[in-house]
Each structure stands twice: as structure tokens, then as C-alpha cells.
From TrEMBL, chain A:
One biological process term in Gene Ontology: SOS response
Organism: Terrimicrobium sacchariphilum
A GO molecular-function descriptor: copper ion binding
Pfam families named in the record: UVR
Residues annotated as domain UVR: 125-160
Protein known as: Protein-arginine kinase activator protein McsA
InterPro entries, per the entry: UVR_dom, UVR_dom_sf, YacH
Automatic annotation (TrEMBL), chain B:
Source organism: Terrimicrobium sacchariphilum
Pfam families: ATP-gua_Ptrans
Entry protein name: Protein-arginine kinase
Enzyme class: transferase
Residues annotated as domain Phosphagen kinase C-terminal: 23-252
UniProt keyword Membrane present: no
Organism phylogeny: Bacteria, Pseudomonadati, Verrucomicrobiota, Terrimicrobiia, Terrimicrobiales
Regulation: Appears to be allosterically activated by the binding of pArg-containing polypeptides to the pArg-binding pocket localized in the C-terminal domain of McsB.
Enzyme Commission code: 2.7.14.1
Length: 163, 371
């Protein structure tokens, strides 16, 4: 049996861990097991290692030929390293990553800190959406003056964004 | 600022004071950040890494808190110098293995350290002594906010900050505390603690983090998940668990004192004897025995003012620190063991013999005004 990490040497260390009711197995050669700290009898690194290995199995939902247009990363590269190529890879391999990320973390959505610029643009988007729905309502109610005013407001915000 | 200044001054986290200082050696919070659309360091070509290093380093150097910082590209450091930084917990073992296209920036008192092109474009950490996770988070959070206008961080509406490994997405935060737990180890309770901590999504690791063994009864407790919880929630959950572990450690010490006082005194006496008179000692043995002396200090057997001597020896007896101190680039393990023993013998001369008349009846390992 081949080592799951280097995929070259014969595996001599076989690990099994049950996480959240799912059995995960990993086979390692002696060098990779030492490298990953598996020879540490306390087994601290085991969970880290297995979460990475599980990752590699999950991403296969993406077609094998898929390549990140920004960095050229492929699914096979992920399988080898358990790491991604660049931030765009998260969009490209989204389908395969989704379930894996859900299993790995406490929740599927980020709820913490966000860059100020992102928060500001999200606020502006929401404001534009609100104005657009008011605009549609105004048009439906034939309040054309109000509609023109709302349209101008939207244009001003969008112009501000472009500026 | 030069590396020699860093090496000659032990970091603030070692000398300082903080809540639960005796059991919680240090608190640390690390944030991982990446630049949008630039290949992550492990996938980038050399030229791309060099470009990212230039961009990120110049932004970090502009931070007001990094005035007069120590800043260096990793290829300019010898393996020994990198190892010294690893032993100080200023860079990771993974980072020490890097060369061209990676760099490090740290402030004078070593409370802030920025690794550029480790696994992510930027990994920044704040570290201080005792249990002060909120304080270190505030420090690193501020640095992150100051860097934000200068660097285009990769951020995703659902996944938060994007990282090379999906296991770090979201907050990109690893908060951890280094705990000294001789009581739990001596009373064989450590595995039980590790298992119950793992069950609630936290990790327990050895001295240098992932994949390293526990030496000197030192353990790192940290969050394992980074997505689905806000930074403050993660820290508060971790803090609660650490407070509980401290309580268990104090109880374990109390029980050892009541049930096995002879065993305890014997271990402390033997540790003092070996460290005071040995002429060859390995790094692992030294750490384990220094840990027992540290426990002895918590139990009043050694004067409190000698605490720093022992705490500094934890760092100074590590292989790279020894060699760097002796100004020798290459040294065999045997030579290091001899040098380590003589350094400890010399330093321990100021520490008087254990005074069993002073043994504490309440070995709380932590003072009442800690709260």
C-alpha cells in the first residue's frame, strides 16, 4: 500500500480516527509519519493530519480537469498538499470545498471581523437595493416625481462608487 | 535593530507579569492573512514570493508599533539564528525552513512578530505573559486594522479571510496559551484533559505546536476551528477552558501534597541535585527537571525572586540558544549536553537548596490577586 502523503514509498503506519461518527483512515510511510509528528505517542498531530487528508478526498466533487485560471492550481495539487493555490481557488473549487469546510469548522459562515472597505461596500449595496425596490413601488403607484428622485439618488451613490 | 539585540534580551512575555503567571507561561494570538489573487507561498514561484515579501514587509514596517523593529529576509539568517527564533516562539518551525522570498519583522520587546510567506502571505502574532488572551487579541487586531488599508486582503463574504489551508479560513485566528502542568502530568490526568478538550473543538499540543511532543510539562491549548464563530467568542471559550485547566492543575498539586508529599519532595530534591551537579544533560532532561524546580518554586520551596532564573533557563538551555551563546556555529550533541550542564550549574548557584520547612499548604500556583 502506498503512502497517502508522498504517494511514493510503501506505507508502514496505518492510522484510523473516528471524527463526528465518520471513520477516517490514513496510511503513511515511515518518513512522512515522522515528518507529520505521528511518531509522537501523545498523537497531538493526528487530528490535524487527518483533517487535511479528509480534505483531499472531499474536493473530488470538482471535475478533475478543472484548473484555477489565476494560479493554474488543480485538484490533484490539492490532493497532494492539502493546501490551495490562491484565493481564487476558493471560487473555482467551491463545490468540492463546501462540504469539507462544513465538516472542519464550527459553522459554515464567517461571523467575525471583516475589512472596513468590505463592510462599507456591503452597506452601500444594501442601500441601493432598498432604493431600487422603493423605485419600483413608486413606478407601480405612478408616483413619477418620487421615482425620478429615487433614480437620481441611486445614480449619485453609483457615481460616488465609481469615483 | 540587530538580531543580537533580540537574542540578548529575553522577550517581554518571559520577564513580565500577568494573571496566573505561574501556570500560564504565555498567551498568544495569531492571525493569518493573504493578498487577493496572489498565489499562496507554497504554490507561488520564487519571483512571486519575492514580490509579495516586498509589498507586505514595507506595509508592516510602516506600523507605528513596529518603529525600530528587527526586520530580515530569511535567506540572510543562518540555520542556527533561525532556530533561536523558533526556540523563542517568534517564528514557526515551518518558517525556519524557508529561504528566499520569506521574511520576518518583530518589535523590540518581541511582543509582536510578523512572518511573511510562511504558509500564508502574512502570519502575525502578539504574545505576552500570563493569561491575557484579550490583551494580545487587541494588540494584533489593531495591527491588522492598521495594515488593512495598505494591503488588499483576500476576504470572502461567506468564508471570511481566505487562507492556504481551508482549516484556517474565517477568522484566520489561532489563539493559544502555553500552560505548565506538572501536577496533572504527575497524577496521570493529562490524557483525560486532552481528550475532553479535544471534544469541545480545542487542541492540546506540545512545546512548539503542531506535531511536537510535550517537554517540560508544557502544553499549548488552542482553538481548532476558525470559521462560524467570532474572534471574541473563540477567545472567551478558550479562556474559560484554560481557567478550568488551571483549577484542575491546582487541585492535582493539592492532592499530591496531601497524598504523596514524599514523592513530590523526592522529585524536587532529585531535580535540584541533578541540575546542580550534572556535567552532561540533554535538552529534554533539562526541561523536565527545570519544570520540577518551577513547581518547587510554586510550592514555596525556592525563593520567588529566583523564578526568573529558572524561567530563562527553559529558553537558554535549548540547543540553538546554547550554541549561539557560545558563539559556535557547529557543535555535537555531546558538546551541547556538557555546555548545557555547566550553564545550569552556574545559574543555579544563586538558587538555595529546597527549604522543606517552607512548603506551601495551599499550592495554588497562582496568587490571590491574580483575578
Amino acid at each position: 500500500m502506498q503512502c497517502d502523503v508522498c504517494q511514493q514509498k510503501e506505507a508502514t503506519v496505518f492510522l484510523t480516527q473516528i471524527v463526528g461518527g465518520k471513520m477516517q483512515k490514513v496510511n503513511l510511510c515511515e518518513a512522512c509519519s515522522k515528518n507529520k509528528g505521528v511518531d509522537d505517542p501523545t498523537g497531538f498531530a493526528l487530528a490535524d493530519l487527518l483533517s487535511g487528508m479528509g480534505a483531499a478526498q472531499e474536493i473530488e466533487k470538482n471535475p478533475a480537469s478543472q484548473r484555477c485560471p489565476v494560479c493554474g492550481f488543480t485538484q490533484a495539487d490539492f490532493k497532494k498538499t492539502g493546501r490551495l493555490g490562491c484565493s481564487t481557488c476558493y471560487e473555482v473549487f467551491a463545490e468540492g470545498l463546501e462540504g469539507m469546510i462544513r465538516n472542519m469548522h464550527k459553522g459554515p459562515e464567517h461571523v467575525g471581523k471583516a475589512p472596513v472597505a468590505y463592510l462599507r461596500s456591503r452597506q452601500i449595496d444594501q442601500k441601493i437595493k432598498t432604493l431600487q425596490s422603493s423605485l419600483q413601488e413608486a413606478v407601480a403607484a405612478e408616483q413619477y416625481e418620487k421615482a425620478a428622485d429615487l433614480r437620481d439618488q441611486i445614480r449619485r451613490i453609483e457615481a460616488g462608487l465609481e469615483a | 535593530m540587530k538580531l543580537t539585540e533580540i537574542i540578548e534580551n529575553s522577550g517581554e512575555w518571559l520577564k513580565g507579569d500577568g494573571p496566573h503567571r505561574n501556570i500560564v507561561v504565555s498567551s498568544r494570538v495569531r492571525l493569518a492573512r493573504n493578498l487577493r489573487s496572489k498565489p499562496f507561498p507554497g504554490w507561488a514561484k520564487k519571483a512571486e514570493r519575492i514580490e509579495v515579501l516586498k509589498i507586505v514587509k514595507s506595509a508592516v514596517e510602516q506600523l507605528p508599533e513596529m518603529e525600530d523593529a528587527y526586520t530580515e529576509n530569511l535567506e540572510a539568517l543562518s540555520p542556527l539564528e533561525k532556530q533561536v527564533l523558533v526556540e523563542r516562539h517568534l517564528i514557526s518551525r515551518e518558517h525556519a525552513a524557508k529561504g528566499v522570498g520569506s521574511g520576518v519583522v518583530m518589535n523590540v520587546n518581541q511582543s509582536l512578530s510578523f512572518m511573511i510567506n510562511e504558509e500564508d502571505h502574512l502570519r502575525m502574532q502578539a504574545i505576552c505573559c500570563g493569561l491575557q488572551l484579550d490583551k494580545v487579541f487587541a494588540m494584533i487586531n489593531q495591527a491588522d486594522s492598521e495594515l488593512e488599508p495598505m494591503l488588499d486582503f483576500a476576504f470572502h463574504p461567506q468564508l471570511g479571510y481566505l487562507t492556504a489551508c481551508p482549516s484556517n479560513v474565517g477568522t484566520g485566528m489561532r489563539a493559544s496559551a502555553m500552560l505548565h502542568l506538572p501536577g496533572l502530568v504527575m497524577s496521570d490526568q493529562m490524557n483525560k484533559i486532552i481528550n475532553s478538550v479535544n471534544k469541545i473543538g480545542l487542541a492540546v499540543r506540545g512545546l512548539h505546536g503542531e506535531g511536537t511532543e510535550a517537554m517540560g510539562n508544557l502544553f499549548q491549548v488552542s482553538n481548532q476551528t476558525t470559521l462560524g464563530e467570532a474572534e471574541e467568542e473563540i477567545i472567551s471559550r478558550l479562556n474559560d477552558v484554560i481557567v478550568k485547566i488551571i483549577e484542575h492543575e491546582c487541585n492535582a498539586r493539592q492532592l499530591l501534597l496531601q497524598k504523596k508529599p514524599v514523592t513530590l519532595l523526592d522529585q524536587i530534591g532529585r531535580a535540584y541535585g541533578v541540575l546542580s551537579y550534572a556535567h552532561s544533560i540533554s535538552s529534554k532532561e533539562a526541561l523536565n527537571l527545570l519544570s520540577v524546580i518551577k513547581l518547587g518554586t510554586d510550592l514555596n520551596l525556592f525563593p520567588d525572586e529566583n523564578r526568573i532564573v529558572v524561567d530563562e533557563l527553559f529558553i537558554e538551555t535549548q540547543p540553538a540558544h546554547l550554541q549561539k551563546g557560545a558563539h559556535v556555529q557547529k557543535m555535537s550533541a555531546d558538546e551541547r549536553d556538557t555546555l548545557r550542564a555547566s550553564l545550569i550549574r552556574a545559574k543555579l548557584q544563586v538558587v538555595p537548596k529546597p527549604d522543606i520547612a517552607k512548603i506551601a499548604t495551599q499550592p495554588l500556583g497562582t496568587t490571590e490577586n491574580d483575578e
